[in-house]
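Translate structure to sequence.
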C-alpha cells in the first residue's frame, strides 16, 4: 500500500486541481481474499468478525478494497480510536469482541459511498 510522505509543497508542480482525502482516525486496511489485512500484512479478520461477515456477504469474492478500518461511537457521533484499539487488544487476550459493543466499519476513499458496516 502507498503511504503518506512529507512534502514541502501542498500542491505538486503541474497539478491544477489536486484531490484531497479525509484522514480517518483508524487503521489502513485491505479486504482481499475474503479477509481483512493491515497494511503490513497482519490478519485482522478474527478481531472484526462482524465486519468480515458483512463485507463477505456484500462484496464479490474476487474484489480488493483498500480503506480505513474505524470504530464509530454513536453517542458522540465520532470515530473512536480507543475503541478500535480495545477491539484488537481484547481479541488477543480473549475471544474477539462483539461488534455490537464497538462496531467496526471500513471507510472507503474517493467518493465510493458510505462506509460498509
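Result:
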Amino acid at each position: 500500500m502507498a503511504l503518506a510522505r512529507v512534502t514541502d509543497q501542498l500542491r505538486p508542480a503541474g497539478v491544477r486541481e489536486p484531490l484531497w482525502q479525509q484522514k480517518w482516525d483508524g487503521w489502513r486496511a485491505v479486504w482481499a481474499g475474503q479477509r481483512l489485512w493491515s497494511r503490513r500484512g497482519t490478519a485482522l479478520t478474527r478481531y472484526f468478525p462482524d465486519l468480515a461477515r458483512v463485507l463477505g456477504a456484500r462484496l464479490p469474492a474476487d474484489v480488493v478494497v483498500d480503506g480505513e478500518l474505524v470504530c464509530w461511537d454513536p453517542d458522540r457521533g465520532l470515530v473512536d480510536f480507543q475503541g478500535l484499539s480495545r477491539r484488537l487488544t481484547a481479541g488477543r487476550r480473549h475471544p474477539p469482541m462483539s461488534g455490537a459493543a464497538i462496531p467496526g466499519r471500513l471507510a472507503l476513499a474517493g467518493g465510493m459511498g458510505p462506509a460498509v458496516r
